[in-house]
Amino acid sequence: SQQGEEDPQALSIQEGENATMNCSYKTSINNLQWYRQNSGRGLVHLILIRSNEREKHSGRLRVTLDTSKKSSSLLITASRAADTASYFCATALSSNTGKLIFGQGTTLQVKP
Amino acid sequence: ETGVTQSPTHLIKTRGQQVTLRCSSQSGHNTVSWYQQALGQGPQFIFQYYREEENGRGNFPPRFSGLQFPNYSSELNVNALELDDSALYLCASSPTGGTYNEQFFGPGTRLTVL
User: Is A1's pLDDT higher than 60?
Assistant: First the structure.
């Protein structure tokens, strides 16, 4: 079973609005990573947040991590039509086995 | 700097056949991971190779096997193809083994098994 569960499964907003996606996981992690995927193509890395970090920013992206609740959120501010994609969270376990565990993803549609 | 490349882009095979997918890692990276992504799902970890040795394996049967070469490129071999093997196969490279760093993904190979 997948470690990461994402919510919502689908999100539709207008350009300029903010989009928030949530991710929950089950076991201890070393870090949590967010990726974007356009139309079934390769994944693009967005942000990596380590277990001892609580918040991280990159441009219009803000990621939070709450290890006590085993959850993370990705906020995209001032969304653009080009942000339309699927977004996945992936957890890296403390054991560093080489395995990233992905959630099922949130499909974001930004309408112009 | 050259990114991660995969070949072929698309592939159609019939049940029972064997397939080999190829991945060239990003320059300076010694680790390659392989993932299977079924339609509408998140990627599932198959295995990782670090400096030519397997460094972790997901819940996939032995007919999924891999190899990493001295130049750190990699192959994924799947024997006795089944219909459920139809998926997007992604490889990712990283500068070190494990998952403590971001992974750089290739564009994927779309495999269809008829």
Answer: no
Neighbour count for residue A15 (Cβ, 10 Å): 14
Q: Is the pLDDT of residue A2 over 60?
A: no
Name which of B102, B104, B110 to mutate to probe chain A: the one with the most chain A Cβ atoms within 10 A of its Cβ.
Answer: B102
Cis peptide before A8 (omega within 30 of 0): yes
Interface touch A98/B55, C-beta < 8 Å: yes
Strand B10-13 relative to strand A106-111: parallel, antiparallel, unpaired? Answer: unpaired
Query: Can you read off the two tokens belonging to residue B99?
Result: 């998952």
Element (DSSP H or E) covering residue A10: strand A10-14
Closest partner residue to B106 among A4, A40, A42, by Cβ?
A42
pLDDT averaged per 10 residues in sequence order, chain B, 114 residues: 89 98 94 95 95 92 96 96 98 84 93 98
Query: Looking at the partner chain, which of B58, B100, B108 has a beta carbon nearest the beta carbon of A92?
Result: B100
What contacts 24+ positions apart, CB below 8 Å, involve B52-58?
B55/A97, B55/A98, B55/B31, B55/B97, B55/B98, B56/A97, B56/A98, B56/A99, B58/A99
Rounded Cα distance between A45 and A24, Å, is: 19
Q: What is the CA radius of gyration of chain B?
A: 13
Distance separating alpha carbons of residues A71 and A14, to the nearest angstrom: 26
Q: Do A6 and A102 touch, CB atoms closer than 8 A?
A: no
